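User: I'll paste a sequence; please echo it back and then give the predicted structure.

Assistant: Echoing your sequence first, then the prediction.
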Amino acid sequence: MRMSRRAVLGGVAAVSTLPLLGASPVSAAPAGGAYRWRNVTIGGTGFITGVLFHPAVPGLAYARTDIGGAYRWDERRARWTPLTDHIGWDDWNLLGVEAMAVDAAHPDRLYLAVGTYAQSWAGNGAVLRSEDRGATWARTDLTVKLGANEDGRGTGERLLVDPRDSDTLWLGTRHDGLLRSTDRGATWTPATGFPATARDPGQGVTLLVAAGRALYAGWGDGAPNLYRTLDGSTWEPVPGQPTGTAARVPVRAAYDRHTRALYVTYADAPGPNGQLDGSVHRLDTVGGRWTDVTPAAPGAGDTFGYGGVAVDARRPGTVVVSTNNRWAAVDTLYRSTDAGRTWTSLKDSAVLDVSETPYLRWGGDAPKFGWWIQALALDPYDSRHLVYGTGATLYGTRDLVHWAPRVRGLEEASVRHLVSPPSGRAHLLSGLGDIGVMYHERLTSSPSRGMAANPVFGTATGLAQAAAEPSYVVRTGWGDGGNGASSTDGGQTWAPFAAQPALAKDAPGPIAVSADGAVLLWSFVHGDGTRYAAHRSDDGGASWAEVGTFPKGATPVADPVDPARFYAYDTDAGTLYASTDGGRTFAARADGLPSGDSQFKVVAAPGRVGDLWLSAKWNGLYRSTDGGVGFTKLTSCWASYTLGFGKGAADYPAVYQVGATDATTAVLRSDDAGASWTRINDDRHQWGWTGEVITGDPRVYGRVYLGTNGRGIQYGEPV
């Protein structure tokens, strides 16, 4: 990750206005490198943190995600169009969307507040401005940080177009108070008169909403926690506002213009996790009276907060709210048609259809109505068209009874592992964050088997295939029913290892399998970074023995031809270790290689003994043809972040990498064993941080699969 210091000049948010992101000064794909890029379809897979229907344009809606950018709904095609894939490697932190805003008076205008992390090592946030519904963007860099993937990411919206003046925008920040722009987001200054004082760490401004000519701001760092202004300059606490644990943090708010009521959802923590209590309150904005309209009070054995809230633009007094973090009874939506006097739980009558995204059955169970529900939107032109986001998908209904995912085109997986088999039904297996391993029998539809079961994993930590026996595949990860499994049918069905080392429960790491499938090497890395020696099994996981000479925490790599050979790279020492006795013992070979970063990767070229490539980030790319005895640095690129192989145009496999031959980090292909490279992505297809995994297809020349951190699996083919 690129580091940058937080820059706050005397507490004032300084800005710089940059050119259109779509016109950044980097080279396009060279001649001969033109590719068509598409998502491998899974469907959703990540936390949908916000949804907005445009109040004046039927069928126009936007969605934001915590790490995967923003999307626009295409009503004609019934799918989402990604709007931020142009964000490049150096700007990876901007792929998380903290907040979004539309202009009711100017339907083509869209604003995004972007910035994934507010930590010291992350870059500052930015505001993206579009005059064409997100087709192109202008960008203003901020000197404050935003946190689209931190606690509180489902609150909001924190960005608002002032309904009295389309040139005026407001932006609530986590640590730097309230900002104001009077030139449609081109420049920003602190809002004078806003009385709340930022805490660090803290939530700061959690929401902004217009109610008639008044503006309201939620505050997440202590009482009072709700402010308003009538003139845009003087802010005051809202009188009579609710207090207590159940109303500690205002999460979201919605205004019913017919009844002049403001509905506010509250929780005892910003969420999406950690909420144990919450409430819903209605404010009569004319008379100033507050009313507690909480549908169900959390209690012992049924703890939760409240999240999303939406009002019906066509039916006065109709409002919908969501629970959040309700694990015992499962989250629900409550709907009221009498301004919150009585409520109906929509979960109780819901019929869920997840046939388009079978992974939502979570390994065979019936699908759940949802969890982490903080994004909630009601179509202003259709009272029965309701959508809500969860930690994995976006559900929608047209009749308040039948629900199905509405995620075509929206892909947010964080991809950790990719294997493209040389034979069999599937061209791709994937190991993902949060949703385990999947068998992609088709690239254009969600895997019919859903998540690999027996056992079900959360995040996958390892995925490997026996090169000479491709029907044998192994996987590792975080799971309640075991942490390792094997398949004898290429990844279609699985069985847990008969035994596993004690370390596996708390430190499951990467795994390798020998070319003939006879030996497994499993490495272990704890979540706190503690590393351990690998364990070896030669009976399919029935028993394991520690390999004391294996460099702790290293990723084991199997030779694709010789089943007796394994390799491992000690990133601390910059030394390549090798085994020639089936992984029983390891000995140091080449040393003096780049060190100090755990992301260095050794990849073995398919079909060749001892042909190793070391992808060493900004230290470049190295190659050994003698099993790691010696390495030669390639001069054709200066940076290499991840590397893989596919079917070649000639005798040697095609080599793919995310790396750099000039100033631009790009997706590259070499057809001459790394002597030269062709850029195969372009400025519109960059997807932020893409340094985890890449692999080519061994059966289709030119096809490449790329793992992203928030935009799922991208696959490209020459055009």
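The CA atoms of residues 50 and 271 lie 14 Å apart. The two ends are 32 Å apart (CA to CA).
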